[in-house]
Design the sequence.
């Protein structure tokens, strides 16, 4: 038998975008929106690209033109500012060429301005556009003048329309009145000076658009980060937002990151979240058209994680959130177990994260060299596998207890656990091995205190596992009915390995002496 996997293709629709103002019946766009030729000039731009320029657009390019060129009832463009976030190599240059040439030849706008922190970048679309025009006789005859002087390239048509390249600087575009302004590589703008200078050129125009393009930035990308925050807010809550700001973002969700413990230079595990093809497709809409899975796969194995995440997944790698707020990094590293053995006489903790993307099962038990040791048993996507796995672990490992919270994200599994015989003790003060340990809210706070103390006092050791290291680094605390507990939704990261480890420690400390009779050494860890 031949097995056939359909080719993986990039996501046509942006992951986060400003919805059209027009609502109603599904229109010819095909994405489910109601835009038509009467309410978006994008259809005309697409026709121009395909019939005049002979360019076959990738579906996302067509979709973006249709959405970004939405019209208001008075016939002017809805969006004055359009922010496009997209990973490199996805065909952004082609989009700029098509859109600018259409504005010049069809709309006959007086002035298109191209600018980027690096002139070569803004000249790239211009150079290609001039080449295309030159190759099409109907268009070539409309050209009045081409200036190819480096640093001041310009294309002028007989209808008066011009496309000029300007430096992205405080003086960029000075004295010009732009109808369509393109700022590439917005992530490189570390001050507002050039954004202000170039976008000011549109102030006096009747129907201007400013297009900003970028892949994800870092904390220094002040302009991009500010616009992205506004754009995302507008996309999520259009009713209260500036309707003239259009945000179109192809990126991986913020919480996607490496979830395997890869050593330097080693490949990521097949189960690592960074291997998720669906996530690649969200940030790379040209995947399967001009971008190949092999190319991304090779970047994943060779790039350092922060590079892969910004350049390929179009994720801003956060560094503003302070790390190690609860447990100090030095203390945690100091508690790394060097023996590499697994704990014995374990209690297990199970925790689903609040996004329900992952579940962690973590063991805490006796460390062969003394003290207690925590070790990740499973950290995998979803929740479908958890109940069966817990039943199997109960049978094979004979754990002291299986700790699970019946409130919060893991609560949904408790009924199914009962069906496979995973139940709380019949008598609360006389548990058997393998019974569930279900913490009440006082216990959750006590468990937090136990965990922080056990690390601080050098009692609890760990095996340097990446998901737990990351969870501890990102951990935050919250107030829980007057006491303190772990924050279940920290600003970044997935706390589930830490939460599972914490209730496993609590279950061990509160149950071990009740169920272990043969080996009293358990009581003297
Ligand atoms: Zn649509
Ligand atoms: Zn990984």
Sequence:
């Amino acid at each position: 038998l031949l097995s056939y996997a359909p080719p993986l293709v990039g996501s046509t629709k942006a992951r986060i975008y400003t919805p059209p103002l027009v609502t109603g019946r599904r229109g010819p766009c095909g994405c489910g929106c109601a835009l038509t030729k009467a309410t978006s000039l994008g259809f005309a731009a697409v026709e121009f690209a395909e019939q005049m320029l002979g360019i076959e657009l990738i579906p996302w390019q067509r979709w973006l033109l249709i959405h970004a060129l939405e019209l208001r009832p008075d016939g002017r463009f809805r969006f004055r500012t359009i922010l496009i976030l997209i990973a490199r190599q996805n065909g952004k240059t082609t989009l700029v060429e098509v859109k600018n040439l259409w504005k010049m030849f069809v709309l006959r706008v007086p002035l298109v301005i191209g600018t980027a922190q690096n002139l070569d970048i803004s000249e790239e679309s211009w150079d290609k556009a001039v080449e295309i025009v030159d190759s099409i006789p109907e268009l070539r005859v409309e050209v009045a003048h081409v200036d190819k002087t480096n640093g001041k390239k310009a294309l002028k048509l007989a209808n008066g329309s011009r496309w000029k390249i300007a430096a992205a600087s405080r003086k960029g575009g000075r004295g010009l009145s732009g109808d369509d302004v393109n700022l590439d590589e917005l992530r490189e703008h570390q001050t507002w000076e050039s954004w202000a200078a170039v976008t000011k050129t549109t102030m006096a125009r009747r129907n201007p658009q400013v297009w900003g393009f970028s892949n994800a930035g870092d904390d220094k990308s002040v302009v991009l980060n500010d616009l992205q925050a506004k754009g995302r807010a507008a996309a999520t809550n259009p009713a209260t937002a500036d309707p003239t700001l259009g945000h179109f973002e192809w990126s991986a969700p913020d919480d996607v990151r490496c979830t395997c413990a890869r050593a330097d230079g080693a490949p990521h595990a097949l189960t690592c979240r960074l291997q998720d093809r669906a996530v690649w497709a969200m940030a790379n809409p040209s995947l399967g058209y001009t971008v190949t899975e092999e190319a991304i796969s090779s970047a994943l194995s060779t790039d350092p994680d922060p590079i892969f995440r910004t350049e390929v997944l179009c994720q801003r790698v956060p560094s503003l959130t302070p790390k190690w707020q609860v447990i100090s990094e030095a203390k945690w590293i100091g508690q790394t177990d060097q023996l590499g053995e697994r704990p014995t006489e374990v209690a297990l903790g199970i925790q689903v994260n609040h996004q329900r993307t992952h579940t962690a099962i973590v063991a805490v038990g006796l460390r062969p060299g003394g003290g207690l040791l925590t070790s990740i048993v499973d950290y995998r996507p979803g929740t479908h596998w958890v109940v069966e796995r817990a039943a199997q672990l109960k049978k094979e490992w004979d754990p002291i207890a299986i700790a699970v919270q019946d409130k919060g994200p893991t609560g949904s599994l408790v009924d199914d656990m009962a069906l496979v015989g995973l139940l709380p003790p019949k008598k609360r003060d006389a548990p058997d091995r393998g019974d569930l340990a279900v913490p009440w809210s006082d216990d959750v706070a006590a468990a937090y205190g136990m965990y922080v103390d056990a690390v601080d006092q050098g009692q609890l050791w760990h095996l340097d596992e990446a998901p737990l290291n990351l969870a501890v680094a990102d951990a935050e605390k919250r107030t829980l009915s007057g006491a303190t507990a772990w924050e279940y939704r920290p600003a970044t990261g997935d706390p589930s390995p830490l939460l599972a480890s914490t209730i496993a420690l609590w279950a061990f400390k509160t149950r071990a002496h009740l169920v272990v009779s043969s080996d009293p050494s358990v009581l003297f860890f």
Q: What stands out?
A: Residues 29, 31, 33, 35, 66-67 surround zinc ion (ligand 1) (CB under 6 Å).
